[in-house]
Amino acid sequence: MSATVAQPTHTLPDSIGLDAFLERAADDPLPLADRHRLVAAARVLLEELYVHLPLKRAMHATDPVQRLRLLERRLRPLSEPQFHAELAGVFQELRDLHTGYQLPDPYRGHVATLGFLVERYVDPDGRPHHIVSKIDRSLAHAGFDVGAELETWNGVPIERAIERNAAAQAGSNPDARLARGLESLTLRSLRTGPPPDERWVLLTYRTRAGRRRETRLPWRVRAAEWRAGRAQDPVPTLATSLGIDAGNEATRQIKRALFAPPQARRPSPRAFRGVVAYRTLRLRGRSYGYLRIFSFNVSGARLFAEQLARMVARAPAEGLIVDIRGNPGGHVPAAESALQILSGHPVVPVSFSLPTTRAALTLARSNPGFRVWSSSIRAAVETGEVHSQGFPLTDPEAVTAGLPRYTGPKVLITDALSYSAADVFAAGFQDNGLGPVLGTAWRTGAGGANVWTHELLRVWLPELLGELPRGAGFRVALRRATRARGNVDVPLEDLGVRTDELHELTERDVTGRNQDLLAAAAALLS
């Protein structure tokens, strides 16, 4: 049966075509000297400050430093897109979303999108289905709407298309790569990776009525966040306590702008809109609190803890469901203060350690906040340790002093996109015995570090690091995170948090309001 071809009649609002965007980017290419500066800066960061380099060399059989040496020799013939793709590819092989090349203007602050999301569920017979779960209303046409099931992507069966896309993602475990392969089908941060090769996609789909059709949708480019009339990164560049996937925070902002209903943002104060939300649910004949933490990308831990304390104070005694799916991380002290709000006893936070390199020792000597790591880095000359002694970044009990706590039963919901500070939160939830962890994948995203930008490191290491051209940048995992209590010294990087129970998403979860997932969480509480 041949498919009926359909096309949207409207254009995604507040966006420009990918072709037009790339033409603007090509008008002013980077000079060769600037390319050399970027590659040289990348070598310094990876050799001297990247805390996971020994782990990545062993676990992923990669040698990024040698790749950079070779790239330095081969810069001249590369086109502008080839150069950015090659430099980004060096970091992609690390499978570390904390550590990467950030493309210069005009890529900064922009995201390529098709205007809809694809989600996967498994039917009772174990067969996977991939359906449109959200779509901007301007693009709905000819049955291509929420609930439409995708069959092929540019002529490739959808399951295989996702596998191929997942292989190109930097997720550090199979669950994370699959989740990011699925999301990046329709959303890609241009700051943290090259733009799509194709200018449009050709889709074969079945409508909810069962009719088979085709459509062609163009890639469009939108700004993740505007400040002073200019597209900006939604993640601060000079924060010292961040653990975040900056690319996924940018795509999260686009998802919020395109798909989040306005009423979902009203209950929270302005500073926390789109970050945290609370409501009371009626499940299995009982009332439960439902706390949704979309991100830990906040400016401070105390204000965030105060907001959470006010929210969970309304939670019924029967239990609280805490959901951090898709949370890209953010402020590590905020994540750990949230744990303390949910605990009746002092929580033990994760520990962080530095690489034992000369640059790390210089940083520890020059920055008062790093002095505690100095002695173990110095001792590494004799001990041969590749990591310093571990210390926490904050004292969650001190941050939350005087705030009420929720001590009723709790369950945590995670997925393979829960990353970085969200990994820290999930690890602390499990290690401190706050309740069971229910995952839609077996492991969280596995980002275990405190990430610093090149711009921030230059403040403390000006003789080692120079200025970068045209707003280009790097982020690097500087301090690695290791777990507490029964998992002492177990790293989060590449391993993540293994859930206690697995719930594979159902059709009702994807097309509705997560009814089966929430019922499974309630069953664990009751």
From TrEMBL:
Start and end residues of each Tail specific protease domain: 247-504
SMART domains cross-referenced by the UniProt entry: TSPc
Stored InterPro entries: ClpP/crotonase-like_dom_sf, PDZ_sf, Tail-specific_protease
Pfam families named among the record's database cross-references: Peptidase_S41
PANTHER family the UniProt entry points to: CARBOXYL-TERMINAL-PROCESSING PEPTIDASE 3, CHLOROPLASTIC, TAIL-SPECIFIC PROTEASE
Protein's name according to its UniProt entry: Peptidase S41
Organism: Streptomyces spirodelae
